[in-house]
User: Fold Pyridoxal phosphate-dependent aminotransferase from Marinobacter nauticus.
Amino acid sequence: GSTSARAAIAEYYARHGYHVDIDRIGLTASTSEAYSWLFKLLCDSGDGVLVP
Assistant:
């Protein structure tokens, strides 16, 4: 996501008492893209994933 969008999200959380570094915010175009990133981060090649 763009720096300005991530900064706006960080500011939103700051107004609610939470510090979130913009470098730790990731924006995706869809939930499918988010799941793709998640599986790539957490799974190794050949792992099975059970989706209920």
